[in-house]
Amino acid sequence: MSALKNFNLRDKGAEIWAGWNRLTRTVFVSVFVLLIALLPFAPNWGPTSFLNTPITSFQNVLVYPMGMFVLMALGLNIVVGKSGLLDLGYIAFFAIGAYSQAILSTLFGWNTWEILPVGILLAMCSGVLLGLPALRLRGDYLAIITLGFGEIVRIVALNITVTGGPNGIAGIPNPPTIFGFQFNLMYPEHFFWLVLVMIMLVIWMVRRFTVRRPGRAWEAIRQDEDVAALMGVNTLVYKLWSFVIGAAVGGFAGVIYASKVMVISPDMFKFDVSILVLACVVFGGIGNIWGVALGATLLAYLPERIRFISDARQVIFGLVLILMMNLRPDGLLPRKKREKIQEKRTM
Prior knowledge:
mainly alpha, two-stranded antiparallel sheet, 2 strands, 70% helix
């Protein structure tokens, strides 16, 4: 058990990566992305046929929950992992994006591509409205406010007419064909490729932010907010940045999700979804985008793979979480800086 705790897959990979030239890295990334893009066809291949899920088709599971959970976990990681803020109401931004798609498409006839920037903008505005008062608080108080915000959005959707109340909104149209890609029930792999493109864009964006001023400010805030403020970092502004960018990712995911499932209701946006997305971040490795993506993939896929055992699957799922958090308390792929801090504390 101690060997597994000390095993550092991230450092091994970083050592190999550092020894490659630019061309080798480009080829490796291109091949890796291509293999991920071919996942919808994996159940048809002999060696990977075991990936097939027993109830829902593997192609649909790739979009939701797997693709959506990876996307939401990457968005939440900006808030939790990069800035060190505990957000328990992240599902609210996902719901805002989903209801934007549902309302504007069914009542006003807009298509998904027209709604997408609106859904993202509404989610970002919600992030500002939540962040301005909430981000002046810290720790448990911030967590309680974000939890309340998530429940407020769900309860509002449950009680007003335009959202369909408890019945939700049905008949949401799929996105229209674009560049030859058809987004409907017959082509779930096209939805997956759309989500995959967005995941890669989010990863690229986060990596760019990390090495620039916002990333350095987030790191300083995460380590010690008081010291960061004394050093001249405008903590409120940069914390608000993290909230808004994370909200934008959640809003995008919500728009695509609603256009995929074609019917939404308030029950789809409960508090436990926020907790599961947060678990993906912790399980994969807080602050490490590759770890978060891996953790979200595993935690989204496992319940679907063992769905055939009915309610017992939740027990197995919980046991897996408990076991892995004992074996790898910092997550599957912890942040490099996080590991150095842990080493200093144990010396």
